[in-house]
């Protein structure tokens, strides 16, 4: 038994050595193989993945420099809330409007300090840009708020406010290019949830059937089996 154990050790060592050599040869062959780079696709040389060889190279990582010293925000709220502190939240949508030939952004604004109902503390504002880098409020620098009627005339009930919003621009639908989904919060009778909304032009004009509703007792989100005759009217700025 002792003899077999002694013989087994050199065998295991040899096997491990051969396996190591095989892996090294495979890695060397793979590294030497050319890497396909698609035409027009930018490459970021932060490592040596695309570099076959290099001589006298010194890689220097530089710190990005913020425009205007980082003191001028790309987007900001000014006096929309009458001097009360507020912020623009990073949820909304950026699309390219082929009719306007510019980018359009819908962003949610929120002020926890504003002394008003939730419908006034949480708002949706519209911004535009020619290049998706330089933005202005509305179309001419004036704040443009997109407002929705939170009341359902059929039941007489109302949501407290809107919340999450997302949309896209349908180039195949000339009549209703703007299509999206909007969450109505704190709405009794199982009406709280996400609704499909659409627009004829540059702002949301009309909301349609309920897309989903929340079960208050279980906390589950389920698809509504019918529109439930909930079609809130939506008011918006005219353009």
Name the helix and strand elements from N-terminus to C-terminus, one letter apiece: HEEHEEEEEEEEE
Number of strands: 11
Strand content: 25-35%
- Helical content, roughly? 10-25%
Q: What characteristic shape results from the CA principal axes?
A: elongated
Count of helical regions: 2
Q: Point out poorly predicted stretches.
A: 1-7, 204-209, 211-239
Detail the topology: elements first, then pairings:
Blueprint: H1 2-32, E1 87-97, E2 102-110, H2 118-121, E3 122-129, E4 136-137, E5 144-146, E6 161-169, E7 178-185, E8 193-199, E9 206-210, E10 212-214, E11 221-223
Antiparallel strand pairs: 1-2, 2-3, 3-4, 3-5, 6-7, 7-8, 8-9, 10-11
Summarize, please.
This protein is of the alpha+beta class and 239 residues long.
Describe this structure in words.
By secondary structure, this protein is an alpha+beta fold. The protein has a domain at 67-223. It has two helices and eleven strands, in the order αββαβββββββββ. It has helices at residues 2-32, 118-121; strands spanning 87-97, 102-110, 122-129, 136-137, 144-146, 161-169, 178-185, 193-199, 206-210, 212-214, 221-223. A hairpin with a 6-residue loop joins strand 8 (193-199) and strand 9 (206-210). The chain is elongated. Mean pLDDT is 77; it is low at 1-7, 204-209 and 211-239.
Key phrases:
239 residues, alpha+beta, 5-stranded antiparallel beta sheet, 4-stranded antiparallel beta sheet, 11 strands, elongated, disordered N terminus, disordered C terminus
């Amino acid at each position: 038994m002792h003899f077999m154990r002694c013989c087994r050790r050199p065998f295991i060592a040899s096997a491990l050595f051969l396996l190591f050599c095989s892996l090294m040869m495979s890695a060397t062959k793979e590294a030497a193989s050319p890497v396909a780079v698609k035409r027009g696709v930018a490459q970021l040389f932060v490592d040596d993945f695309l570099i076959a060889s290099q001589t006298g190279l010194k890689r220097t990582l530089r710190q990005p420099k913020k425009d205007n010293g980082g003191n001028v925000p790309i987007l900001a709220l000014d006096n929309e809330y009458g001097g009360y502190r507020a912020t623009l939240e990073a949820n909304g949508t950026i699309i390219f409007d082929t009719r306007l030939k510019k980018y359009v952004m819908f962003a949610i604004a929120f002020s926890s300090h504003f002394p008003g109902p939730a419908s006034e503390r949480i708002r949706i504002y519209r911004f535009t840009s020619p290049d998706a880098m330089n933005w202005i409020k509305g179309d001419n620098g004036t704040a443009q708020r997109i407002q929705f009627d939170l009341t359902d005339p059929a039941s007489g009930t109302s949501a407290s406010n809107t919340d999450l919003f997302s949309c896209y621009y349908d180039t195949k639908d000339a009549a209703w290019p703007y299509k999206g989904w909007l969450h109505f919060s704190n709405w009794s009778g199982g009406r709280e949830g996400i609704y499909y909304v659409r627009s004829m032009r540059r702002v949301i004009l009309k909301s349609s059937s309920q897309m989903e509703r929340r079960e208050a007792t279980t906390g589950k989100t389920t698809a509504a089996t019918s529109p439930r005759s909930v079609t809130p009217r939506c008011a918006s700025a005219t353009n």
